[in-house]
Amino acid sequence: MLKTKYQYIHFVKVKCEHMPYTMHSNRSCFVMGTVHYFKPWKKYVIEPVSDYVFDENCLRDIADFLDQLNEKLKGNKNATEKRTTPSSK
Each residue of 14-30: pLDDT tens digit? Predict the structure, then answer.
């Protein structure tokens, strides 16, 4: 289970394959950024909306959330590879 609620920000799951989460401030309902898969880097990244600033605590929370998503992605990829790789005999 992903941790989505932090001290200052939270992430909301969106029903969109290309943008699975949006990031919000806990003080408002405004979208502060979107989380999406960045194919060149083969990982999830955050794309902040302009005019928002983040301190080190918010950045740590963002990094923690992205780490969770990327670890889950890595785990799914390894599981898929194990299923498709023929066993050596």
Answer: 987 778 999 999 998 88
